[in-house]
Write a structure and sequence with these properties.
- The chain is mainly α.
- The chain is about 80% helix and about 0% strand.
- It has 12 helices and no strands.
- Helix 1 runs parallel beside helix 5, helix 3 runs parallel beside helix 6 and helix 3 packs parallel to helix 10.
């Protein structure tokens, strides 16, 4: 549908903007930090689904909403997480590295975990297929190719990139906000959600609890392992901001259940702004704390 195509296009533009801010050596250096990469992936792929599973059993939600929130937790930080880390000036290469790896890991984890979630909450499940070829094409077109193109243009025309970087950065934020507003308000026939306010208020408390718990716990877990404060904030952002576009693909298109898709829409409604705010405050207070320790 038109709205879904627009989302993919804007996300590709976001990734191009992020790629244009990176140098190849800076990105490749992340591979030399296996501890940060392994921790980030473990928190995204295992910790968040397990934490969400514990929480959804405490909230009196409809079964479809519980499954929908579980599916959100199976879809680790996408391009919006990269954008937030870019805006916060945290460890952007680590953010993109994690997104690139988990984009391929989900080819195995998403179908398996989704099957388990549906079976647990309903007692049965049809055989679920994730279109591997189409997913790989989407990953390449929306994530990897735009990043590489941005890095290449930065190398060939560095002065042009400097001129365009700020307008691209802020236009990306505006466009992302616009497409999610369209998703909420557009008619169902045009790719809209059809969600009503009563459903938003039913899902919102659980979604907020899941979101803030994930960010706070992942930050402190990372802080206990890593010495680089920027990397800790980056990981908290990656765990807190889920790939709601992928969650919509799974629930609406692959499973064909619009009720399961609604938690992804509610999560997308606030998570960009709350993650940015949490990352900003955590980064700022961490900097103040380090300066205080230095002065002592």
């Amino acid at each position: 549908m038109f709205v879904d195509f627009l989302i993919s296009f804007v996300l590709a533009l976001v990734m191009f903007t992020i790629g244009s801010s990176l140098k190849p050596g800076q990105f490749m250096a992340v591979a030399k930090r296996p501890k940060a990469v392994a921790l980030g992936l473990a928190l995204q792929m295992l910790f968040l689904p397990l934490m969400t599973f514990s929480l959804v059993n405490l909230f009196p939600l409809a079964v479809e909403f519980k499954i929908g929130l579980m599916i959100v937790s199976f879809c680790p930080g996408g391009t919006t997480a990269n954008l937030v880390n870019y805006l916060l000036d945290t460890d952007v290469p680590l953010s993109i590295y994690l997104t690139s790896i988990n984009s391929f890991l989900i080819l195995a984890t998403v179908p398996f975990f989704t099957y388990l979630a549906i079976y647990h909450f309903t007692g049965s499940s049809d055989h679920i297929h994730l279109p591997v070829g189409a997913t790989i094409v989407k990953v390449v077109l929306v994530i990897l190719a735009p990043v590489m193109l941005g890095m290449w243009i930065r190398r060939i025309w560095p002065k042009l990139v400097i001129i365009l970087q700020r307008p691209l950065k802020y236009s990306s934020i505006i466009l992302l906000a616009a497409i999610f507003i369209i998703k909420f308000l557009a008619p169902s026939a045009q790719g809209g959600s059809g969600i009503v306010m009563a459903e938003i208020f039913e899902i919102l408390p659980m979604a907020l609890t899941m979101h803030f718990t994930a960010m706070v716990l992942s930050y402190y877990l990372a802080k206990g392992v890593l010495s680089n404060h920027k990397s800790c904030v980056t990981i908290a952002v990656e765990v807190g901001l889920q790939n709601t576009t992928l969650a919509l693909l799974i629930t609406s298109t692959l499973i064909g259940n619009e009720e399961m898709a609604k938690p992804a829409l509610v999560y997308a409604l606030f998570s960009f702004f709350t993650t940015f705010a949490y990352g900003f405050l955590t980064k700022r207070f961490g900097k103040i704390h380090r300066l205080t320790q230095t002065s002592e």
